[in-house]
């Protein structure tokens, strides 16, 4: 399978348009059509419907595999490039909201002290963008967080190495005075019909909750397109809906009560993403961050 054809297919499927894909990839529309036809001929099945432009059943199945394949290729290219050039004196960490905390800041300081010439920095990104930047070598390490069962991986990190950094229990953030606010713990199924704030950039996004509990649950309330937990808590306090936060970060917000989530068994996990052989500075950061404190 030609990866150039695969990349063209993914772009057309994402944009839903041959012409838009041609513009993004720098090809003519005719060349894009030829790429798709060649890929379909190779796999001996139609991959895209034409009106509207949308994946067929086979195309949807291929898309499930295409992302990790292309990510692994980008990771391999980056790893090989590092072998033939002098590693930069740099430690740039990409992090999704809620992933870069006190432990990561301390590890960054330790790495900077070990190599004073290194330029250090943190880049805040959406979770789905972090793995791609690590694989492409745009950053030296990534930190992502999300909600998952203790034995399940976080979604969207295939193709790069993932190491567990931490796991914290979760809490449901309720308005003060809510009928369930005095309970010692909550079963999420009792709140499946409640209104939830849709905050995709926050540490425990509603999409993760639905993935863990099944489709159809947790009707969304207002959309919050930010990452500040104080704003999210203010929306909860005003009665706009509920949210889920890591328990250590869920207390102290005016007008709210944090009740631990007891069922199902879900945690807020932070994972470190790496690609290839790390530079010495990145290695120091990694070791410091993943070594349990004494």
From TrEMBL:
Matches recorded under Pfam families: HTH_1, LysR_substrate
Location of the HTH lysR-type domain: 1-56
Gene Ontology annotations for the cellular component aspect, listed alphabetically: protein-DNA complex
The UniProt record lists the keyword Zinc: no
Family matches, as InterPro entries: LysR_HTH_N, LysR_subst-bd, WH-like_DNA-bd_sf, WH_DNA-bd_sf
UniProt-recorded Gene Ontology molecular function terms: DNA binding; DNA-binding transcription factor activity
SUPFAM superfamilies from the UniProt entry: Periplasmic binding protein-like II, Winged helix' DNA-binding domain
Alphabetic keyword roster: DNA-binding, Transcription, Transcription regulation
Entry superkingdom: Bacteria
Family: Belongs to the LysR transcriptional regulatory family.
Protein name according to UniProt: LysR family transcriptional regulator
